[in-house]
Amino acid sequence: MTLAVHTHPVFEPLTTSIGATAHHVDLAADLSPALVADIRSALLEHKVVIFPRQRLTPESQIAFGRALGELTASHPVVPGLDAAHPEIYVLDSTDGGKAPVWHTDVTFMKRPPLGSVLRAVSLPAVGGDTCWTNLEAAYLTLSEPLRRLADQLHAEHDGRRDFQEYLEQRRNGEGNTWEGTTVRSLEPVTHPVVRVHPETGRRSLFVNPGFTTRLIGLSDVESRALLDVFFAAIGKPEHSIRHRWHEGDVVVWDNRSTAHYAVDDYGDHRRVMHRITIRGDEPVGPAPAHP
Length: 291
Prior knowledge:
Layout: E1 10-13, E2 20-23, H1 33-46, E3 48-51, H2 58-68, E4 89-92, E5 115-122, E6 130-134, H3 135-141, H4 144-152, E7 154-157, H5 160-170, E8 177-178, E9 181-182, E10 189-192, E11 194-196, E12 203-205, E13 212-215, H6 220-234, E14 240-243, E15 250-254, E16 258-262, E17 272-278
Parallel strand pairs: 2-3
Antiparallel strand pairs: 1-2, 3-15, 4-17, 5-15, 5-17, 6-14, 6-16, 7-10, 7-13, 8-9, 11-12
């Protein structure tokens, strides 16, 4: 077993808005509390941290995730890698494991994950990049009157389009245990449109085209129009990054303030990724403004 060594990692920013590459970090080693604290701090600052060409196994990926926080099941509906690794969600492009739409992981549950840890296992010869975007920056691109309106709104998040058929036909109506309860249905949940980050206190748009279906209390026309405005703010290149994967790369992101997009540009070639998620809390919006 490799001894824990705190080597003072370097986190090289990718842009002024989002993303950093970690240098001098071996995630397969036993991570010291100081190094874990550095990684957590970098995650809050940069939102996405890339660890190039790591040597993780399923076991060491899980161990790294546990160093960052309590892990969830692989997914509310989809089973894990195997009985020994129920925490690992396998994203296999030959079995529907593609996500070419901006989304934040599992927002269709009451308590979405705090963060995700994604590892490249098998990559196509070309293509298969992933993009991440800064939802705090997206919020700030809105005009002040629109931000004030967004602060008051709530939205419905619904995972049935993507996972209801899987739950019913491939799991016989019984999914995984999530937050202590076996998932047997995917009823929509409501979250604030603007989420206040529980650690930094900063605000971000907490809607995404993948799972957000409507704004609560608005007409269909109003809801569609405002969601279009919010979705347009999300994917702006000015606050996004695009990562070209190499085998072994590990990327960690803050699920509370980012969205991501898996680029589907590799045809019928196979792409396999392993993802684990860290248990999160229920999203909280801004306090009501005083009259």
